């Protein structure tokens, strides 16, 4: 990635035309070929940019531009649309390049794996007297997130989601049908647990005899948010 702070003007031509007059800006030329033009404001959003696939060519300015003080032209052309971004560089204040390597991607807090782990440690959120049999209980159609036992010896299959919708209820229904055929597990009931459950999913779950539990993630981490946990 190349970071350049320069006094420059910018012209975009193509499906629309746009002009940025002469000012000091940050130019970010990324490894994927894209170019972003930033000012010291506007948060994360660039003033203008060119997304890949594109190419950047550095050109010597013509006599007229050179006489106006332009040092070089950066011409960025989109490979498919032909749109072009012309950056006229008048003065370079800073110019560095850095090899960032492969980015592992954003790891969000509160994903399903975190919820599943916390719920396995706090099965009392589902109900009193329950014990954990296993996380990721294997079945022929995929693993059940949590398998619990109630004090009467019954089995509870728990499907954990960040946001619960109809597809999650259908998934749990298939697990319940399969698990219910095992005499060592029957009778099997279902619990659909999520941080947020859509109204349509609640209606379908109720129709299928599945109980819904809304998870207070902050509370489960030990931060008392005051939000109700059960619906």
From TrEMBL:
Stated EC number for the protein is 3.1.-.-
Tell me if NADP is a UniProt keyword of this record.
no
> Which InterPro entries does this chain map to?
Endonuclease_NucS, NucS_C, NucS_N, NucS_N_sf, tRNA_endonuc-like_dom_sf
Show where the Endonuclease NucS N-terminal PH-like domain sits.
Answer: 2-104
Top-level division of the source organism's lineage: Bacteria
A Gene Ontology CC term for this entry? Answer: cytoplasm
CDD domains per the record?
A: NucS-like (cd22341)
Q: Where is the Endonuclease NucS C-terminal domain?
A: 111-230
Single GO molecular-function term?
Answer: DNA binding
Please provide the record's keywords in A-Z order. Cytoplasm, DNA-binding, Endonuclease, Hydrolase, Nuclease
Give the location in the cell. Cytoplasm
Please classify the protein's predominant subcellular localization into one broad category. Answer: cytoplasm
The record's family statement is: Belongs to the NucS endonuclease family.
**Known function:** Cleaves both 3' and 5' ssDNA extremities of branched DNA structures.
Give the protein's recorded name: Endonuclease NucS
What's the source species for this entry? Microbacterium allomyrinae
Instruction: Identify the coding gene.
Output: nucS
């Amino acid at each position: 990635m190349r970071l350049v702070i320069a006094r420059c003007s910018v012209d975009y031509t193509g499906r629309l035309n746009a002009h940025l007059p002469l000012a000091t800006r940050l130019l970010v030329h990324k490894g994927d070929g894209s170019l972003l033009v930033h000012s010291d404001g506007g948060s994360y959003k660039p003033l203008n940019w060119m997304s890949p696939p594109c190419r950047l060519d550095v050109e010597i300015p013509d006599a007229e531009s050179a006489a106006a003080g332009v040092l070089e032209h950066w011409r960025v052309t989109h490979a498919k649309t032909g749109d072009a971004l012309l950056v006229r560089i008048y003065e370079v204040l800073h110019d560095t390049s850095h090899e960032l390597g492969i980015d592992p991607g954003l790891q969000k807090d509160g994903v399903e794996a975190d919820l599943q782990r916390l719920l396995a440690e706090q099965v009392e959120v589902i109900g009193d007297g329950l014990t954990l049999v296993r996380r990721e209980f294997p079945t022929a159609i995929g693993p059940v997130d949590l398998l619990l036992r109630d004090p009467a010896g019954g089995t509870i299959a728990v499907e954990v989601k960040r946001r619960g919708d109809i597809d999650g209820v259908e998934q749990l229904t298939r697990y319940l049908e399969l698990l219910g055929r095992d005499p060592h597990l029957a009778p099997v009931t279902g619990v659909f647990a999520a941080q947020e459950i859509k109204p349509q999913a609640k209606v379908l779950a109720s129709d299928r005899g599945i109980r819904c539990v809304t998870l207070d993630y902050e509370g489960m981490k030990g931060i008392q948010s005051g939000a109700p946990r059960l619906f």
